[in-house]
Amino acid sequence: MLKSALLSKFRWMAGAVLLLATAASHAVDFKTVGAAPVILYDAPSAKGGKLYVAPRGMPLEIVLSYGEWVKVRDASGEMAWTEAKGLSAKRNVVARAANLKVRASPDDTASPIILVDKGVLLEMSEQPSSNWVKVRHKDGQSGYVKTSEVWGL
């Protein structure tokens, strides 16, 4: 009886550890709305209710894949469904606050190249390193922003 109880408890603990390890190993996945705007729905079907249209270039966090559909989260935290084929692997980020300083180098003391407003779309030029990411504004200017100051990473 005691052996059975211990074995049951061990299995439960092993399962819990495996579940936590699996959850920790899943990285956050972001995609960008492709060349054309996409419709975001309340269900994984074109027959679902249309919530809004996501513009070209908008970053979306992939929460769940379901066949040809993905459940996504936008920068405001809203959840919706869209067809996966409308998304691109290209990476963009969005400024989280007004007057975001895009700097010449990844350093708090570096000169700001441009200031951008909250919600401005920036193309990710390189993968983030430490606390900085290199971005490019639509006017062509490139620089660095802190990863904590943008959404989409």
From TrEMBL:
InterPro entries (alphabetical): DUF1058, SH3-like_bac-type
Highest taxon in the source lineage: Bacteria
Signal peptide (UniProt feature, chain positions): 1-27
Domain SH3b: 88-153
Swiss-Prot/TrEMBL keywords: Signal
Stated name of the protein: SH3 domain-containing protein
Organism (species): Janthinobacterium kumbetense
